């Protein structure tokens, strides 16, 4: 597997289904700022960050409060240096937050891995529209990870947290602009 050569990663929503991806980064020696509201979830992850202890940095922030969220990211950059890899899983409760974050990170070269739910995978127009919006940031290397579903023993099911994290780690080391995890289509096949 290719090594992960980033100094400072920011993983938004990194204490939920992406916790294994956050830990993979930290255990590869990358300073990993994990954004979430509940400090106890991130504390638990710190206990599993055993290869390079101290690499998981909690950023306790609610991304629906966009101005405060941006200040919180600025503060972690002031302490640990520019974010060179952002992995972003945000709910639609903060539709414009990814764009505000990219605008902030555009001051330095940064890979921006945007994790998107199944509904985005279905709508090529919406996906392309997002790509277009992010193309205004010349220092952002924008990549989309589309989550789908799995077929197992003839039954359809949603992806597990581990499958999602593994897919995201694969995307981080890939130069493809769009990666799908599982099967994004067709809608009728979804669980
Ligand atoms: N296509 C698929 O198969 C698919 C797609 C999506 C999800 N899923 C599954 O569905 C399950 C639940 O998904 P989920 O969306 O709840 O994801 P999750 O990743 O399990 O949880 C959300 C993450 O975002 C953080 N978060 C949520 N709201 C936040 C806010 N306002 N500000 C800051 N951080 C916030 C949470 O931490 P805090 O709560 O501490 O803030 C947590 O780290 C997952 O276990 C996943 O496996 C499957």
What's the level 1 CATH class? Alpha Beta
CATH superfamily: NAD(P)-binding Rossmann-like Domain
The best one-word shape is: globular
What do the pLDDT scores average to? 93
Give Rg in angstroms. Answer: 16 Å
Features:
191 residues; Rossmann fold; seven-stranded parallel beta sheet; two-stranded antiparallel ribbon; 9 strands; binds NADP nicotinamide-adenine-dinucleotide phosphate
What does this structure look like?
By secondary structure, the protein is of the alpha/beta class. The chain has one domain (8-189): NAD(P)-binding Rossmann-like Domain (Rossmann fold). 38% of the residues lie in helices and 25% in strands. It has helices at residues 19-27, 39-48, 66-80, 97-105, 118-122, 124-134, 161-173, and strands spanning 8-12, 31-36, 56-60, 85-88, 110-116, 140-147, 149-152, 155-158, 178-181. The strands form two sheets. The protein has a seven-stranded parallel sheet with strand order 3-2-1-4-5-6-9, with helices on both faces. Strands 7-8 form a two-stranded antiparallel sheet. Helix 2 links the parallel strand 2 (31-36) and strand 3 (56-60). Helix 1 crosses helix 7 (161-173) and helix 3 (66-80) runs parallel beside helix 4. NADP nicotinamide-adenine-dinucleotide phosphate is lined by residues 13-18, 35-38, 41, 61-64, 89, 91, 117-118, 147-149, 158-161, 164.
């Amino acid at each position: 597997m290719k090594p992960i050569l980033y100094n400072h990663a920011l993983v938004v929503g990194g204490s939920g289904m992406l916790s294994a991806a956050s830990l993979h980064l930290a255990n590869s020696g990358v300073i990993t700022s994990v954004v979430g509201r509940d400090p106890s979830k991130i504390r638990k992850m710190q206990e599993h960050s055993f290869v390079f202890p101290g690499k998981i940095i909690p950023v306790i922030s609610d991304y629906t409060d966009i101005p405060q969220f941006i200040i919180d990211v600025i503060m972690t950059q002031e302490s640990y240096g520019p974010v060179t890899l952002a992995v972003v899983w945000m709910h639609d409760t903060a539709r414009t937050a990814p764009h505000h974050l990219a605008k902030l990170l555009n001051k330095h070269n940064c890979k921006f891995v945007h994790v998107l739910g199944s509904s985005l995978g279905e709508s090529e127009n919406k996906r392309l529209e997002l790509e277009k919006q992010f193309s205004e940031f010349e220092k952002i290397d924008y990549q989309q990870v589309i989550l789908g579903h799995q077929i197992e023993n003839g039954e359809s099911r949603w992806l597990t947290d581990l499958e999602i994290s593994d897919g995201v780690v694969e995307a981080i080391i890939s130069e493809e602009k769009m990666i799908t995890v599982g099967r994004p289509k067709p809608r009728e096949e979804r669980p």
